[in-house]
Amino acid sequence: MRHLLSTEGLDLATATSLLDTADTLKQTLLGREVRKLPTLRGRTVVTLFYENSTRTRVSFEVAGKWMSADVINVSASSSSVGKGESLRDTALTLAAAGADCVIIRHPASGAAHRLAGWLDEAGTHVVNAGDGMHEHPTQALLDAATLRERLGELAGRRIAIVGDLLHSRVARSNVHLLRTLGAEVVLVAPPTLVPTGAQHWGVEVRHELDPELPKLDAVMMLRVQAERMHGAFFPSAREYSVAYGLNQARLDKLPEHAVVLHPGPMLRGMEIAPAVADSPRAAITQQVRNGVHVRMAVLYHLLAGEEIAA
Ligand code: NCD
């Protein structure tokens, strides 16, 4: 693996190997007083974020630091991007300054692919940490890691992704990865928030949440991404919440073993009720914890050899 740009095209063997490595790293660090492996000593990892982020940026930084890499955070607002520098020049600057890996979040779909094209020659690896409405592969991997912990193997499991599918890179990455792992995926959203062509993704598309609930092994709620909406996609926040919000009554309709996921940031009271978000059936903080190990696994696969130097 040279770059991690998408889960579309990520084959089963590579995906499984990343998830297994994340699990091994988690077990290796468990109960250790000092959470530090020497694996990436001498490697330089740069996070280049053109959009806001809490979880993703912090967990990439923690992942790099726990593997002894030097991690440098660049945000568009405090870099020369604010002076008008192009993405290409910024990327080439980072590579020339010694970056072995650039982790990029950008509002334009396809930005990570462009970056990978420019940095190939320099031998710098690229990880997509979310590009516009396209993909967010490490989010899908950490979701899969969490589901595997809660449910075991995912083949044959039925998983719903609910809400603002249209603007969600998390949904796209999850559809591809979950299908590769053999899960059945059902997308639930109002017709205005279903991307065109979703019918051809090998998933079921539904517009009503309630009839789906009793059949699910997991439900993944998505944030309504108002910052990407230019127009009215539903009548009001209250109507959206009544039709698609995961409240206590809906939680009670899920099978006992079913897991609730949310990539964060959550809009409590909109797509998810506070009581549901805080219930033991929600895996939201477990997702964040697994995000560190999954990102360690990705950096390890890109930057280190095949053996884990524990
Ligand atoms: C997501 C993102 O940025 O795509 N958040 C995340 O990375 N955990 C989802 C969102 O912003 O709603």
From TrEMBL:
Which amino acids does the record list as binding L-aspartate? 83, 169, 223
Q: Where is the Aspartate/ornithine carbamoyltransferase carbamoyl-P binding domain?
A: 2-149
Keywords from the named record: Pyrimidine biosynthesis, Transferase
Q: State its Enzyme Commission number(s).
A: 2.1.3.2
State the GO CC annotations. Answer: cytosol
Task of the protein: Catalyzes the condensation of carbamoyl phosphate and aspartate to form carbamoyl aspartate and inorganic phosphate, the committed step in the de novo pyrimidine nucleotide biosynthesis pathway.
Quote the subunit structure annotation: Heterododecamer (2C3:3R2) of six catalytic PyrB chains organized as two trimers (C3), and six regulatory PyrI chains organized as three dimers (R2).
- Name the record gives this protein: Aspartate carbamoyltransferase
Q: Which organism is it from?
A: Saccharopolyspora thermophila
